[in-house]
Amino acid sequence: MRRVLIFLIVCTLAALAADITGTWKATADGPNGSMERTFVFKVDGNKLTGETTSSMLGKSTITDGKIDGDNISFTITANMQGNELKLDYKGKVSGDEIHLTSEIAGGGGGQAIQWTAKKAK
Q: How confident is the model at residue 19 (pLDDT cuts 50, 70, 90)?
């Protein structure tokens, strides 16, 4: 009986996770002006996967993605002028928007960038 109760609680928590599956267009003001990025999210329970594309960094795979209620987090590995660059993203889903912060993985001392993503129609 206890296992059934635990299973039901886990299923309920997974059901409460935001379903952001689909394509999202994001914009941010960066150090060199306005930036755009497209995210294609796939959600399976509380696991977040997918890919992202930008004109500056190209296409990257979303790894280590998690959803906890309306909070999301994930990492991408991008190629910047031949150098591998890991970026950590954290954000909150709010209706049809996601507010994200990205920064160099491991707190590389860089400036955090604030993104606003809207579901593509």
A: confident
